[in-house]
Amino acid sequence: MGNIFGHHFRVTTFGESHGPAVGAIVDGLPARLTINLADIQKDLDRRRPGQSLYASARQESDTVEILSGLTNQNMTNGSSLTMVIKNQGARSSDYVSLVDKFRPGHADYTYYKKYCLAPQPGGGRASGRETVGRVAAGAVARILLNYVTNGLLKVRAGALAIGPVMAYKTDFEFAETDPLRFLDPDGAQEAQGYVKKYMNWGDSVGATILVRAEGVPAGWGSPVFDKLEALLGGAYFSIGAVRAVEFGEGITLAKGLGSQANDPIGPKGPLEDRHGGVLGGISTGRPILARLFVRPTPSIKIPQKTVSLNGQEVEITIGGRHDPCLAPRLAPVAEAMTLLVLADCFLAPNSRVSQAVYP
Question: What is the SS3 assignment for 133?
Fold first, then answer.
């Protein structure tokens, strides 16, 4: 089971949905980097459940504890930074009726085929709860990148669409105040109404997440197999609900002409950003733009057909506490995965930029 992400900024996540705790171990941090617990907690709070009608009602404080890797002055000491977040709101009783049945849309069936394990409460390691560790590690990557770029590098994410309801403005500041993290103030009420409609029917809705990374210097990434968009794409696809990814105007470019697709280049680099901030697998200095297409939450209250462990056909209805739309809580995870990739690129030994500004 792959639990380690990255080559130079290495992250190991651990824990299960209904286990005692989840968390992350970060390796590769330089010594003497100041880590403020509040900065990590801020990102964890943005992902935390139970904050609105549009999120799982599971109550978790998601309070982070650091067990190793810091001096008494909150500076990294060059060793592994270990962060743990204790589970407080697990309610395994919600899954008693499902212990021998595969939930459609979940990893229960494939885990059984690979590991011979019956369905675990809340999905176990396959639960979205695992992403808590990613967000904690991403917050540490944000601290590192903020330091080495003097605050110029910023990664933000928000909902570009909730089901068919599109955002025609991209206001990230507004998105941080909106319960769905919708990017357009003018369409926020319509987006909420759409989710409420299907919530009342016991169903869930999908979303499109826009990720924007500004201030990424030109020269990060590498050609061939470790292209920057390949690394980012792999990171995004490691988020359970992401089913498609687009960079820049990717789908539109596939329908167009070369004369329409190429970004003109000036003395300071590309003048436009149709390719989403990456050419030849290397950052151009323009904003990196990615769209993540997120499937609806598979845990719904509408009856669904499935089979039990012994192959008997059955019908199930999933109770418990689940997100009617994953957008507001997945956006911080998308930010975290972007930050982890960028921190890894910065620390790469063959990075011209990292050799120039390494702390």
Answer: helix
